[in-house]
Amino acid sequence: HDQVVIVTGGGQGIGRALCCRFAEEEAKVVIADIDREAGFETLDAIQKSGKEAHFIRTDVADEDDVERLVKEAMEQYGKVDILINNAGIGHFESLFDIDVKHFDRVIAVNLRGTFLCSKYVAQVMKEQGRGVIINIASTRALMSEADSESYAASKGGILALTHAMAVSLGPVGIRVNAISPGWIETGQWKKAGERYTPEHSEQDKLQHPVGRVGEPEDIVSAAFYLASDDAGFMTGQNLVIDGGMTVKMIYEE
Ligand code: NAD
User: Fold this and answer.
1) Can you give the CATH number for the domain in which 19 is found?
2) What ipTM did this prediction achieve?
């Protein structure tokens, strides 16, 4: 209630679900996204439901953009209670073929972006004496498929950044935790006109111990918990929300 939350990558997918659900709970939502069209669409959806939001076009890898994001959010709402570092990109290509510029961009958006947004928002939260930062990592920080070096490294970096910031920022009243989603189906959250209800094979579902693929709402629930005072004794941790995939032992046939 009456909380101000910044969600990076809030235009689509999990970020859009976070924005819409925080707005439903009467939070004031700052949607930060590099994609204008997606950002304005999320804004429109929230405003049509009579709730409060503001879109600020931001490339989280760009320091000037991030500085402006936090300044504008403060001008608009006067405080920031929660930052969700959700913006992320992937690039999956063989180590033997990949151009290092792709590696650099994935690290710049996923890891540098999380660092930059946290740095500027933490300054504000420090003055408030209170704040919560939630970093969206991935189960790919913990285990891998082939050809995922850039993404895995960026997400592993986010987990280390999470415990480092938890220790640095704990004394000024800021808790920092990560969520590592497994397979989350975001298809139904894509832009209007492109919406679809994805079909999953029995095998897709049954490879998860809980018997289904994840939904954005699974990540929203974890974020609500981490943002609440119920998680007041929790910082520096990583919540794995993956239907049990990472704890399932697999012996090859
Ligand atoms: P998505 O691609 O649907 O949405 C990502 C959003 O981030 C888009 O709106 C995009 O425009 C925005 N974005 C991209 N680069 C940006 C930048 N430089 N600055 C600002 N915004 C930028 O992705 P998603 O599936 O919703 O994933 C959201 C987060 O969750 C990502 O960090 C992703 O790595 C992580 N994640 C997703 C899954 C999954 O299965 N969907 C699993 C594990 C982790």
Assistant:
1) 3.40.50.720
2) 0.99
Give the position, in ligand 1's atom list, of the atom nearest the Cα of 190: 3
Q: Note whether residue 127 is domain-resident.
A: yes
Residues of the chain with pLDDT under 50: none
Determine contact, residues 82/225, Cβ cutoff 8 Å.
Answer: no
154's tokens:
């960026």
Give catalytic residue positions: 151
- Give me the DSSP letters along 59-90: -TT-HHHHHHHHHHHHHHHS---EEEE-----
- Name the residue range of residue 201's domain: 4-247
Which residues have CB under 8 Å from 221's CB, separation 6+? Answer: none
Residues with CB under 6 A from ligand 1: 8-9, 11-15, 33-35, 38, 58-61, 86-89, 109, 113, 136, 138, 181, 183-184, 186
Does residue 177 fall inside a structural domain? yes
- What the block records as the tokens of 201 is 């094979």
Q: Which ligand 1 atom is at minimum distance from the Cα of 90?
A: 34
Going from the Cα of 205 to the center of ligand 1, the distance in angstroms, rounded, reads: 22
Indicate whether 156 belongs to any domain.
yes
Rounded Cα–Cα distance for residues 11 and 119 (Å): 22
Number of domains in the chain: 1
